[in-house]
Amino acid sequence: CKQESPNLSRAQAWLGDRARILSVVGGYLGLEEVQRTVDQTGIDYPVLLADDRTLEAFGVHAFPTLYFVDAQGRITGSASGYTTTLGVMLRTLL
């Protein structure tokens, strides 16, 4: 998360109104841990909290996992592991 967060922030800045970046965090020990990470990494996009049931429903088995959702709310793709800024942008716009 700490390595990929700057890529997500850059992608959001470059994409502007064409897309929205948000983070869904799972596997955390507590809200304090999440807030500390947000503060330390300068995350500037919304961060939502997911429980184990939500992670299971979406088939998340690795962190980070990215999902790409179109304007109609349909999941158009996903990626697990580190993704570059360009990779986020290309997957978002395709």
Task: Provide structural commentary.
- The chain is an alpha+beta fold and 94 residues long.
- The protein has helices at 5-15, 31-41, 52-57, 85-93, and strands spanning 23-25, 47-49, 65-69, 75-80.
- The strands form two sheets. A two-stranded parallel ribbon has the order 1-2. It has a two-stranded antiparallel ribbon with strand order 3-4.
- Helix 1 packs across helix 4 (85-93).
- The longest helix has 11 residues, at 5-15.
- The protein starts with a helix and ends with a helix.
- The mean pLDDT is 90.
The parts where pLDDT drops under 50 for at least 5 residues are none
The CA-CA distance between the termini, in Å, is 24 Å
Total beta strands: 4
Radius of gyration: 13 Å
Shape: globular
Helix tally?
4
Percent in helix: 25-40%
Q: Could you say which structural class the secondary elements and strand pairing correspond to?
A: alpha+beta
Nearest-integer average pLDDT: 90
Strand content: 15-25%
The main sheet orders its strands as 1-2
Largest sheet: 2 strands, parallel
Order of helices and strands: HEHEHEEH
